[in-house]
Design brief:
Layout: H1 7-19, E1 22-26, E2 41-44, E3 65-69, E4 76-80, E5 95-100, H2 112-124, H3 127-136
Antiparallel strand pairs: 1-2, 2-3, 3-4, 4-5
Bound molecules: zinc ion (ZN).
Residues 87-88, 90-91, 133, 138-139 line the site of zinc ion.
Length: 144
Amino acid sequence: MAAGIFPADLKQVHDFFVGRGWRLIYNDLDEEGVPRNPEALWGYAPGYGGATINSLDGVEPSKPDAALNLESDKPELEITTAGNENGCPQHARHVVISLELTAGTTELDSLNPVLDEIESAARAMNPRELIECRFFGACGASRG
Ligand SMILES: [Zn+2]
């Protein structure tokens, strides 16, 4: 596996997010319930009050997600907030945390307070405002 991720660590990360109501949205599980490879992406389904946002070539608002950054020497877990890929400061997504994962010492529980905030903000967010921001310029700048 790339970047020193062990299946046990991957399973631990997966179980941690699923336990918080996140879902594996990219990749699938092997017979042991472990994502098949580290190129996995977990998303926070209850974001936007649980509304489903249809995919539109990647311009749709995103719910929080988490992925392993496999480009660094040591694998890192990156969590990104809900929002737009391009948006005003209020609505742009940003990476809020990078947690270095070392074999057997993932310390995932330290993420709980940060995730509480990200999830709560995402549940309360109105995706219509994000869509307006995205399509009409930063917060509807072209509104008139
Ligand atoms: Zn905005």
